[in-house]
Protein 1
Amino acid sequence: MAPDPRKKTTIYDLSQLSGASPSTVSAVLNGSWRKRRIKESTAEEIQRLAEEHQYSTNRQASGLRRSRSGLIGLLLPIYDFHHFSSIAQSFELRARRRGLCPIVVSTHRDPAEERASAEHLISYSIDALFVCGAADPDGVHEVCEAAGVRHINLDLSGTRAPSVVSDNYDGGRVLTEALIDAFPADAPLTVDELMLIGGREDEATRARVRAFHDVRSTRFGRSDADAVDLTGYSARNAKLAFERHYQARGRLPRAVFINSAINFEGFLRFLTDHRGDDYSGHVIGCFDYVPFASFLSFPVIMIRQDAESMVATAFDILDRPSEAPVVHLIPPQLVPPRTALTGPLDEIHSPGDDLRDRSL
Amino acid sequence: MAPDPRKKTTIYDLSQLSGASPSTVSAVLNGSWRKRRIKESTAEEIQRLAEEHQYSTNRQASGLRRSRSGLIGLLLPIYDFHHFSSIAQSFELRARRRGLCPIVVSTHRDPAEERASAEHLISYSIDALFVCGAADPDGVHEVCEAAGVRHINLDLSGTRAPSVVSDNYDGGRVLTEALIDAFPADAPLTVDELMLIGGREDEATRARVRAFHDVRSTRFGRSDADAVDLTGYSARNAKLAFERHYQARGRLPRAVFINSAINFEGFLRFLTDHRGDDYSGHVIGCFDYVPFASFLSFPVIMIRQDAESMVATAFDILDRPSEAPVVHLIPPQLVPPRTALTGPLDEIHSPGDDLRDRSL
DNA sequence: TTATGTTGCGCAATCGATGGTGCAGGGACT
DNA sequence: AGTCCCTGCACCATCGATTGCGCAACATAA
């Protein structure tokens, strides 16, 4: 009567109990029973027994047989970083909504680790792999290709598989225009008061810089290369850059397009060393979402990459028959000044528990 | 010659190629070959072939046979939240260091989802489960117990399994004392200038409040209940609380112990509505790590929960034979004012790429 | 020469679920 | 009665790796 303690019940147990064959039990429990013309009453009985004995299918066995696992992988450079953890969050949600089990692994932008992790995941017969921000997406591609595993690049495009990335050009354009438009008609921005700081020679930054120059040229008639200062994705270097430009002209440019959260942190470090200064009349743009930026005394306009849409698009691609290595561009969202701190989630929570009200 | 495209090589393939039996191949490849007295030269040959044909073991098959999977699960309330994503990060790192494959699933503090997710993970024959911040750890315990899966509570203790949690009393004590000591001898803090805002009736908050009162009594001779204002974990409610106390006395108490990052966000919202005010002479404590807090114009003392140690301890427990449901307390760390923004990681990165230099 | 090890490895069952195929029984129709 | 079809299900090989057991060949000891 009492189910064996510590021993999971199998279809064979249920077969015994119900008098049906294991294959019938299997069919009933995996939903293929109508196709196999099992009588409704038989199915009901087996389902009842399954419930009663807390049956749950052994996915290793099932996966072995079907050579699929219900697992889906995500390779991530690093976890603990807002943009990436947003992606992980969306990934997890959507994977689970499809009944898939998410495995997230961080590979530190190391090509060897990327390949090794991909291989490791593949040895679990994962059904698909998302490759986010990889240093070497095409290396991972090879591994997946060899194993016949569907895979999609996220956030950084590869040449061999479909990719979903932020539309950096569009984001850069929107942010640059927003910066210029933030200034009143009676004290308009001039061309050399507008700088871009941060980033390095990568795909994303190049697109943003291109947009920056394009808008700048369109709006001011010209744009020169030294308006852009690529510091790398480093808080310290960004801080030094701010320091430099500050020294050079005795104050900060009135409008700065900061290329990432990391670089924005450099800016904050700069600010802490210049507490006394007056920043009214300044407007900062940040190509990343940093909620606390809304607390600053001057306006900060942000671009929030739409992790949710990116992941959604990637899943959509999985649904379609496998496609050529197209790049899908996802427009990022503009976050107007002072709006980051109040989330739409504020309203829907019981006062006692609003963990979902994400703070940082 | 060329390995079949798209078809993974198995021990049977290698058996054919090497002339050895599948069991010998298996033994060689899983390392048990010495125990089975396989000749060294045979082993070498098989390993060579395995390499050549890019063999990798099918973990579903292996797992099925051994009824273990090499997977390890983590149940998390939510991802996108600094404390939890730190835990996820540490978990991922340590799991992989042990050759385990991490599966992180967020369950939104919903008891039913917690159980369901645990069952789902168990159906993959996970080797162990960490249960972090669960609403109903003992419910999850039952599920695990029934399946014979080792499990450990993290961050919130259960009564039925070993738990690893922050030492909230100690953290509360340290933070309260640091707040008091932050004031100079010539303008010392008085008892009713010290408040605690945020949190609700839960295990963690209770311990912190107890410490708060204890220190307050010790240092000031008395402590009254209305120095504590539990607002729930809500930014909005915390903001309202600050507003209330501000109105009541015409200014903020000079020292406030804020109970969490979420509540701290409420404080920031309060500040944005009171930009003009002078906060010199104020000191804020926050029982959570919020890097950007270091940017504020007044000192913010933070308590950083030691996710890394918590996870490490949890893994250590796994190594030991299963133990009684003991609670392990991990002392959190004090983050002195203005120190959050400069990480030790600043130094070790190439300028071009310091993603690991976590910003927020 | 016979008893006793030791070395090196193969045999075959097993883990649990799946799905192609086949087959018995019953009804309908010629 | 013979043919055909449909219903409802069982049989059994299979996925790939693991492991208890056994056995041949050779060495050593008595």
Note: Residues 20-24, 27, 36-39, 42, 61, 63-67 of chain A lie near DNA strand D (CB under 10 Å from a C1').
Protein 2
Amino acid sequence: MQRYFTITQLTQEFDITTRTLRFYEAQGLVSPTRRGRQRLYTHGDRTRIKLILRGKRLGFSLNDIREIIEMYASDPGETGQLRLLLDRISARREELLEKQRDIELTLLELDEVESGARTRISELEAGLSREKV
Amino acid sequence: MQRYFTITQLTQEFDITTRTLRFYEAQGLVSPTRRGRQRLYTHGDRTRIKLILRGKRLGFSLNDIREIIEMYASDPGETGQLRLLLDRISARREELLEKQRDIELTLLELDEVESGARTRISELEAGLSREKV
DNA sequence: CAACATATTGACTTTAACGTAAAAAGCCTG
DNA sequence: CAGGCTTTTTACGTTAAAGTCAATATGTTG
């Protein structure tokens, strides 16, 4: 297993541009180490990038994503901070559950549209295309 | 049940601004009728708005949403068009299923962070706060 | 080492999705 | 019907998330 990934390896793997990865770095979402000026991404960096892209697919902004990632990485020493973390977690969980419900609804609607379309196709194929079946 | 909704009623119900609704109209996503210059939204319009907002929560762009809504409303007369519709439906379904998986993963990660946090809280409350438990 | 590709940096541009502000129109209400 | 409110229209501004382009720098290969 290789120790480091280059920027182009990652752009190819995730189908994003170098500009995107540098932008994420400027936003403090990843911090690849350097060999000279060149960026070297560790497996940890790669995992972070996966998290970012997953967040994007779910419609989270980069700021949201930053907060989520920081939750993962945070290591609060006192109870108050830990309780605050628990609150944030449950807020995020609520959001995700709402998205799940939204998806369920949309899938159901797609099912309806699909079965409607299938019905009409079979009508047409049965030669019943003389209006008003 | 009322026949029409005013723009402000809908902005209040959905917690969006009039600017947003007019913007959606300019994008061809809703087409309220008019009484003079005033916009009157039907129940159908209201449903569309719900669809739009649901799409947004799932991270779809307004263009995506337009296409999805057009799928719902489309009434293609010939088999070729219907098959194309079926393709679009299954593509959208794939996207949604991917989002579902993304959500599952994220929920699992949140569970882990949460249980870690709970563990540390109980350690702290047990008075074991003298480093290295 | 010259040539050529690859990487970095910085500046400017673009696109989506609204926000904000100003002016005019419409419509109650005393 | 004057004053005040909401609504509409028009136009310009803003923000997030990159895209594009040009100038260097670095690396590598014959």
Note: The first strand of chain A starts at residue 33 and ends at 35.
Protein 3
Amino acid sequence: MHAAPALSPTSDAPGAPGSSPDGTAAGTAADVPERGVVDRVVSWYDEHARDLPWRAPDRTPWGVLVSEVMLQQTPVVRVEPAWRAWMGRWPTPADLAAAPTADVLRAWDRLGYPRRALRLQQCAQVVVDRHGGQVPDDEAALLALPGIGSYTAAAVRSFAFGRRAVVLDTNVRRVLARAVDGHALPAPAQTRAEVERAAALVPDDDASAARWAQASMELGALVCTARAPRCDECPLVSSCAWVAAGRPADLHAHRRRTQAWAGTDRQVRGRIMALLRESPVHVPEPVLDEAWSATPQRARALAGLLADGLVVEHQPHPDEPPSYALPG
DNA sequence: AAACCGGGGCC
DNA sequence: GGCCCAGGTTT
């Protein structure tokens, strides 16, 4: 079908694992094809890593976990100030676990997908109750936490504990799709084969694996971007299969469908949540009705929020309309 | 496998 | 106005 990929895991002979950090820091060109993909990307990262607070030396595993949950579908630029405020207010799992849920949802503000905030607090409670207040470092225990899936579990293991993990997010998927497969973008759904291919590229030792995880994600975020990749700044350009093929268009373009937004239940939920976040007191139903004019959709959205535990209902008197508020 | 779940910024 | 963003959970 296709020619041998320009890059392959076997071209990445780990060489001397503990060799890099001392001497020459890749003086000029990071793009030396003779070096493995991993080495080139890690060297690039050493010079171009962003200075993000959840990467600071004084970071905690809990801080890393909080950042990863916030970063699920929310861009870094919007997460950074929210993370600083959040960690200043609730530095430990015990702090968050003890907070009123309404405060947590207000602090989440407009990061989106507020169920994440709810699950993050539940996660804090589980960490306190079942792990002595310490974030666990093994895969199964992390995956068992609310709101933590395969990506976030791997990211926490790698970024917080420096352990080997297959960290495969949208950035890494795109980097590998281009550099190895020669595709403009990865397939819409992650496949098992894709995970195994990514796993084969991860260095064997913990420290190198953790650096590769950080570096490959950063390359995807800063250089190998979805929209306008900066191939002239890429340490892999000389061996990139996608560049070699002339940067062909996306194979799956016809299958991608962007989520509708205007007029959806999600927009109505967002308006209701915004209204309740801003109200210090319970909101009577007639006031809540201002969030959306179409009654059936408004009712459906509210029912969903109640079912999710993001909103609670109060009805002091049976002959009066109920009122609504954030929980706790 | 597909649907559902926010919100903002950039092209 | 379309597209993208350090995904997870549910059906």
Note: The beta strands of chain A are 283-284, 312-314, 323-325.
Protein 4
Amino acid sequence: MATTKSGGRQEQSSERRDQIISIAARLIAKRGYSATTVRDIADEAGILSGSLYHHFSSKEAILQEILHSFMAGLLGRFEEIVAEGGSPRDILDKLIAHAFATIESQPDAVGLYQNELSFLARQPGFEFLGENSERIEALWLAQITEGQKVGVFRDSIDAPIAYRFIRDAVWSTVAWYRPGRGHTASTLTDNFLDLLHKGLLAD
Amino acid sequence: MATTKSGGRQEQSSERRDQIISIAARLIAKRGYSATTVRDIADEAGILSGSLYHHFSSKEAILQEILHSFMAGLLGRFEEIVAEGGSPRDILDKLIAHAFATIESQPDAVGLYQNELSFLARQPGFEFLGENSERIEALWLAQITEGQKVGVFRDSIDAPIAYRFIRDAVWSTVAWYRPGRGHTASTLTDNFLDLLHKGLLAD
Amino acid sequence: MATTKSGGRQEQSSERRDQIISIAARLIAKRGYSATTVRDIADEAGILSGSLYHHFSSKEAILQEILHSFMAGLLGRFEEIVAEGGSPRDILDKLIAHAFATIESQPDAVGLYQNELSFLARQPGFEFLGENSERIEALWLAQITEGQKVGVFRDSIDAPIAYRFIRDAVWSTVAWYRPGRGHTASTLTDNFLDLLHKGLLAD
Amino acid sequence: MATTKSGGRQEQSSERRDQIISIAARLIAKRGYSATTVRDIADEAGILSGSLYHHFSSKEAILQEILHSFMAGLLGRFEEIVAEGGSPRDILDKLIAHAFATIESQPDAVGLYQNELSFLARQPGFEFLGENSERIEALWLAQITEGQKVGVFRDSIDAPIAYRFIRDAVWSTVAWYRPGRGHTASTLTDNFLDLLHKGLLAD
DNA sequence: GATGAATGAGGGTTCATTCAT
DNA sequence: CATGAATGAACCCTCATTCAT
């Protein structure tokens, strides 16, 4: 009845569910998945831990749902950005800007993703993490290599390595970025792009 | 004779202890602290879990010892590099080079540090993590600001933010760097410094 | 409806809780607190040891609850007896009679109290033991000293010491009194009061 | 070579042994047998816990030795007192006086005996506790019944019950008697005998 | 005599999960 | 939908004891 179309993964929608997912994302982002108990989550939701199982089939299912919807949204937007076209540099800038915007809008999901990815990627049921990561990498990397081909990016740089440096610097921001301390996603983007484009050295 | 009383933390040195620490570091780096059990560690050491407590007072004490000796060594070397003098740029390059070298020589400790830092820093008994991190930040940051003052680094860049981008890009490497796949600490350093110094854009 | 919030200590009342408390009191009285395991208690209750923690936060909490309710009831009744008034001798006799009645009605709690008091009184969380013991001592002692003042009790006797002798003789009875062997609380009381009042010597 | 004659129970004598026994008695008296670990004992003796097993075959053996030598000495002295003869009243007074003297000279052994007796008496290897207790009871009881027969003690009193009241009042003193607070074994004896002989009531 | 490393059993406790109500 | 009781497995840790050195 409340079941949506999206294949296989059962996704019942309700306020309670969304509330629980939000709470779980926050706690897991802060303490880590293993260190967060279903009781912690239930307590914050104001119910008993056993009652969580009316909404989710398991603790792991909560995590899957958080990450799945996060990654689906992220990949979708990245694909849109690429589809909207532009120069490799413009597209890369937009990808980066969207990453910083995502850090600002969904810090819990991003933090959780950063912390748990390495452990989860090999776990059964989380194969989608690796798949989506590869697709995102392909999108970004294409801009860099294309930029090198057309001469806008220096080609002395190893593109896959550059991608990883960029990716890690951007997403790690979630660990220290706190809104309302003089920085916004926008200023972070500006600073990062300035450094990335022109480098640290004065001419 | 084999007893070290350096620093008051670790009481005794022995092959067994070092072996256990090494095993624990590897497992914790791979699975996370919460998800690594003392039985896992003991199993790999070929002893019973209870026997671990002949060498360490608690699971947490193992983690403390790993991180404490790692951070003490790291901070010590960073301080040496600064003490050896040079231009801000040269010193910063050396700091970065040493970070990549550390990733190569102690990937477990670095990985563990990257994954658990945010959770641990506020835990009692782990205050030294925050303290050492701040001292390292101060060392690195001083090079950047000094470089800006003398004009070798562009001063349109916000130094603390630049530091964080650099730090995160460098240390996150531990999550994907695998020796013997065409890269070494040295080539990683070269690639990173090239990108950092001159930026991504062609002139 | 079944929830009592009397006193803040015990949170919830239920048959299960009471049953477990009763079992625990019996086992601890027989074997001692340290030698009684939560598994022993759970086994007798017909549940798994972990399930105990649905009802109590810790093994210690069970002990606290046993002792707290025991001492609260005891002190309350003693205070009532004093409040009902009478001559010091009558009141002291009634206090003693109630002690023997308590030994008969709650042998486990009394036995447990006798065995574990000296160890527990200094433990954190059990301060109420010492406090209540002092209040009971004050009640009893007041009767003895008042009796000496009005001349009904011989005043060659050191009252605090006499109190301790009386107290110990009475409560220690729990260690050997077995109902249905020719003695009841009532005959014990009679025997004790006869000896206490008139002494062992014939005139 | 250091083996003494006393049959069956191996009793090697040495300063170390005596020191350990003394430490163990003190700790067990304070915390209880179950709550006292061999490590606690070894720590206070300045050796490692495993090294205790060069002196004693088990933790239980230490306890046995403490109690065995304590009870042997006690029973022996009680038998001497009876053998020395005198009126039932004089003998009973001397027995009581010796009990208080023992509390003063061997508080740990007495305290340990008081606390652990009920649990230990049924344990294999501790049958001597019950046997000796019965022989002591017989000695004391004989004085009371003989005193009643010759008319020096009131015979309205049930002798076995009176014995238990006396025994418990006397030995329980160990739980609160602290030397150097205005009382000695001698004054305790005087107070107790005064109360016991003449009772609490004024004529 | 003592050490230091280890054992094996068991300690109290936590936790994800189930299910009758 | 939620509760409350329970499960079963696992967790970290303790302890008496053993034994080669």
Note: The longest helix of chain A spans residues 59-83.
